[in-house]
């Protein structure tokens, strides 16, 4: 909810949360988590430090990114460096709003690293992430998926929160 | 004319703040991480610093403490998406004058700066 409000506040237009879901996947399933692994996306990626370590990603189909950022950037939207900076910061604001809520609710602390922005096939991105969990020997990966939609422009963005399973069980205590 | 140092790793956010502050007639300087912020502060002695927290090289809380150590009268306002209670408390304890949580309304930024420049 807080993340949706943050997104709406940043863009000064209404984004709805279309879906929030928790699922458990094996690392091998991650590349296909959004369907077609070959779909080109723009993603801003954050590691989460603090007491609930894990990862956050804001993902959007690459052909929607310019329309999405246009209200923030105007004509600067065609400058890829500026667009990536804005997409990274949108992810920072939305992801931090999400973490702020979690951290305050559970009386803990969770902070994202500065963003890394990638333009790549979604399967390639999630594959690199999957490798981290494989290296950790973690067989099940919890994934919290939030879908934001902006109806007038028919845009959708996806926020994935992927904590280490260990940190999630810490939280439940 | 008051001089404001805007510290944020996102070029997009610096551009946005520069527009909002520039419209008020304030001079805006920019830094993109905590290390640059400290250098720029010493060099230009701005009247106010708007400081992000999540940044590469050096985060905003560390830079805040370093600047306040060198100049106990430094006016630093945090402007960050990381608005957790523990973070806000730490910032205020470290000498921040105020804390603006992103996303911000431009008026909130202008009001805060006016209050600090008083
Ligand atoms: Mg930042």
Layout of strands and helices, then pairs:
The complex is a heterodimer of chains A (173) and B (118).
Chain A: H1 2-11, E1 16-25, E2 40-50, E3 54-61, H2 65-73, H3 80-105, E4 110-112, E5 116-121, H4 122-135, E6 141-150, E7 155-163, H5 165-172
Antiparallel strand pairs in A: 1-6, 2-3, 2-4, 2-5, 3-7, 6-7
Chain B: E1 3-7, H1 11-22, E2 27-31, H2 34-44, E3 48-51, H3 60-70, E4 76-80, H4 85-93, E5 98-101, H5 106-117
Parallel strand pairs in B: 1-2, 1-3, 3-4, 4-5
Bound molecules: magnesium ion.
The site of magnesium ion (MG) has 6 residues of chain B, from loops.
Q: Could you characterize what this model shows?
A:
The complex is a heterodimer of chains A (173) and B (118). Chain A has helices at residues 2-11, 65-73, 80-105, 122-135, 165-172; strands spanning 16-25, 40-50, 54-61, 110-112, 116-121, 141-150, 155-163. By secondary structure, chain A is α+β, with helices and mostly antiparallel strands. Chain A has a single domain (2-171), classed as 3-Layer(aba) Sandwich (Chemotaxis protein chec), CATH 3.40.1550. Chain A is globular and about 45 Å long. Chain B has a single domain, classed as Response regulator (Rossmann fold, 3-Layer(aba) Sandwich), CATH 3.40.50.2300. Chain B contains 5 helices and 5 strands. Chain B has helices at residues 11-22, 34-44, 60-70, 85-93, 106-117; strands at residues 3-7, 27-31, 48-51, 76-80, 98-101. Chain B has a 5-stranded parallel β-sheet, sandwiched between helices. In chain B, strand 1, helix 1 (11-22) and strand 2 (27-31) form a beta-alpha-beta unit. In chain B, helix 2 (34-44) packs parallel to helix 3 (60-70). The longest helix of chain B has 12 residues, at 11-22. Chain B is globular. Classes of the chains: A alpha+beta (173), B alpha/beta (118). Chains A and B meet through helix 1, helix 3 and strand 4 of A and helix 1 and helix 4 of B. Bound molecules: magnesium ion. Magnesium ion binds at residues 8-10, 52, 54-55 of chain B.
């Amino acid at each position: 909810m807080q993340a949706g409000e943050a997104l709406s506040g940043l863009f000064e237009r209404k984004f709805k949360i279309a879906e929030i879901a928790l699922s458990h996947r094996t690392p091998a399933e991650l590349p296909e988590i959004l369907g077609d692994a070959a779909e080109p996306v723009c993603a801003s990626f954050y590691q989460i430090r603090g007491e609930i370590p894990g990862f956050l990603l804001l993902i959007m189909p690459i052909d929607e990114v310019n329309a999405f950022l246009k209200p923030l950037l105007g004509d600067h939207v065609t400058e890829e460096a500026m667009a990536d900076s804005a997409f990274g910061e949108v992810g920072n604001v939305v992801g931090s709003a999400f973490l702020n809520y979690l951290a305050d609710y559970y009386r803990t602390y969770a902070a994202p690293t500065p963003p890394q922005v990638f333009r790549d096939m979604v399967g390639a991105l999630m594959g690199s992430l999957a490798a981290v969990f494989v290296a950790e020997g973690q067989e099940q990966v919890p994934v919290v998926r939030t879908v934001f939609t902006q109806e007038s422009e028919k845009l959708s963005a996806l926020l994935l929160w992927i904590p280490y399973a260990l940190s999630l069980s810490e939280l439940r205590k | 004319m008051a001089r404001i140092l805007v510290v944020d790793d996102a070029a997009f956010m610096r551009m946005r703040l520069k527009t909002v502050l520039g419209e008020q007639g304030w001079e805006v300087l920019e830094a993109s991480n905590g290390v640059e912020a400290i250098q720029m502060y010493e060099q230009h002695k701005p009247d106010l610093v708007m400081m992000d927290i999540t940044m590469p090289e050096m985060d905003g809380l560390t830079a805040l403490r370093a600047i306040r150590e060198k100049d106990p009268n430094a006016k630093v306002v945090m402007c960050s998406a990381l608005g957790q209670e523990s973070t806000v408390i730490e910032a205020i304890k470290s000498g921040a004058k105020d804390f603006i949580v992103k996303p911000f309304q431009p008026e909130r930024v202008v009001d805060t700066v006016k209050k600090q420049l008083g």
